[in-house]
Amino acid sequence: MTTIENNMSSQNFLRRIIEEDINSGKLDKRLWSGIPGPSNLQKNIKKIDFASIRTRFPPEPNGYLHIGHAKSICINFGLAEQYNGSCHLRFDDTNPDKEDKEYVESIIEAVNWLGFKWINNSQNNLYFASDYFNYMYEFAEELIKNDYAYIDEQNEDEIKHNRGTLTNPGIESPWRNRPSEESLILFRRMKNQEYPNGSLVLRAKIDMKSPNVNMRDPIMYRIRHSSHHRTGSKWCIYPMYSWAHPVEDALEGITHSICTLEFEDQRSLYDWFLEKLKKIGIFSDPLPHQYEFARLNLSYVVTSKRKLLTLVKGGYVDGWDDPRLPTIFGLRRRGYTPRSIRLFCERISVSKSDSLIDYSILEQALRDDLDIAATRAIAILNPLKLIITNYPINYSEICHAPINHHDKNLGYRNFSFQRELWIDKYDFQEDPQKNYFRLFPGNLVRLKYGYIVRCTGCRKDSKGNIIEVHAEYLPDTKSGTDGSNRIKVKGNITWLSSTDAQSVTINLYEHLFTKPILDSDENNFIDYINPNSKKTITALLEPNTINRDIKTWQFERLGYFIMDKDSTDENIVINRIVTLKDSYIKN
Ligand code: ATP
Ligand code: MG
């Protein structure tokens, strides 16, 4: 089930294609005026494109971006970066019913946060497909005039029925061979708001018997009397994806149009439209080409926009940026860094075959990113008192711990050692299990950065719950002193002194689902929501950990943590991003 795609052969299939294209010289003479448009417009300016390739990330602004989109973003922007090309951020806003400005803004913020730029050589490559509605309409008229498209009066059900199946050819529409002039008039009237929704469509005239169902006279335009978030009520006809997309790519001079595998069957249609537009003289070589890669499937998460919407609207999570969601904003709030997401995308690589990526690969990318630089601190998630019975009352000593073990130059943290300390309750077992090296009666353990102690027992309440652990310290064994290596011990536990530990709220997150593979279960994914996916506890934190500049830490022996965006001075809220791989403290 856990598959890391085999990098060596597949990693570079897109890079290989791009390098071949660059080396062949066929991309050299492309004209690019800096403004999307057909060939005659590019020719007027006569500027050779400075970008070696052009790619694009074309989200539909109908939801928040997720980790799957991050893969597409990293591929498209990453390839452009690598080959001195340009990557366009293009909103594919051709379907007014589901789209919204809110999503446009969130997508811009997410791509920016991931660290990618669409401004290159002072050209701002941020585009909206809706800005091309005039072009799309004009080009459609040209196709009609050349008898490559016609207006069909069949209703939706008839069209669907007459499309045929994989085994049966389709049936030609009775309107298929009407004169072009008639189609043209109807198309203009369609645009002029004269017909109700669903009454007419514009179809490409290709081949109703094609083995590829997509080629059986696909619909190019349908009537939708809906207001669009950018064009308002100007249009009542909207282009279908398969017509709009090749036109958008060609207008923008895209060289490599990279998309996910489900569009493979659409490639011949993509090429058909562009070939016809070239023949008519609207576009010229080199035309854009479509290439497909396997979408990201990640265990324990859902990435379908519809399912994410159900989770948010149904109140199963706390909004689009809930730290348990695989949305970019959820990952950001959880504590994932842009670098860790980019590292993850690099590691999973690009291939043409579907696979399931284990969530742990994403977690490891975060650990690898944060390990080197994260400030260390101590936190106690399940506090239990430890009394050092032979240590003087009202006395304390300062202990030192490196801010980061990888770079001692960063200096040291200080905290005090006293008679009354806090430890984690999982660091004591009255009756130790096999291979348990931490506190149990008679055992010697180092209190990290402090003294070696010998556990002497514990105290219980009337119900038998352990309320205090007792130990005696061995003077002379303080870390950093000459005697510290005098005795070797196997257990090394973290602690805080009872007077200077700071109380904070910590959210402990687990997978949102109890089942690793969800996407095949269409509607019952809600049944697999993990009831323990968020646990909020009050924990204790090393003094002076909270300061203005640092918001992400490694809490020793526990994992990586981040200050939540809702944290205030009065109520400090911290999210656990991920545990350390070999963490043995349970919660
Ligand atoms: P939905 O979840 O509604 O199907 P979508 O994935 O089609 O949405 P778009 O906004 O059309 O969303 O996606 C923009 C780009 O991101 C597309 O090129 C799409 O192929 C790519 N993309 C979307 N999901 C993934 C994924 N899981 N892995 C890789 N690329 C993806
Ligand atoms: Mg889509």
TrEMBL record:
GO cellular component, one term: cytosol
Domain tRNA synthetases class I (E and Q) anti-codon binding: 493-564
Record EC number: 6.1.1.18
Main enzyme class: ligase
Reactions this protein catalyses: tRNA(Gln) + L-glutamine + ATP = L-glutaminyl-tRNA(Gln) + AMP + diphosphate
Signal peptide as annotated in the record: none
Pfam assignment, any one: tRNA-synt_1c_C2
InterPro entries tied to this protein: aa-tRNA-synth_I_CS, Gln-tRNA-synth, Gln/Glu-tRNA_Ligase, Glu/Gln-tRNA-synth, Glu/Gln-tRNA-synth_Ib_cat-dom, Glu/Gln-tRNA-synth_Ib_codon-bd, Glu_tRNA_lig_a-bdl, Rbsml_bL25/Gln-tRNA_synth_N
Residues in Glutamyl/glutaminyl-tRNA synthetase class Ib catalytic domain copies: 53-365
Domain called Glutamyl/glutaminyl-tRNA synthetase class Ib anti-codon binding: residue spans: 374-473
GO MF assignments: ATP binding; glutamine-tRNA ligase activity
Keywords: Aminoacyl-tRNA synthetase, ATP-binding, Cytoplasm, Ligase, Nucleotide-binding, Protein biosynthesis
Biological process, per Gene Ontology: glutaminyl-tRNA aminoacylation
Membership in a protein family: Belongs to the class-I aminoacyl-tRNA synthetase family.
Protein's name in the database: Glutamine--tRNA ligase
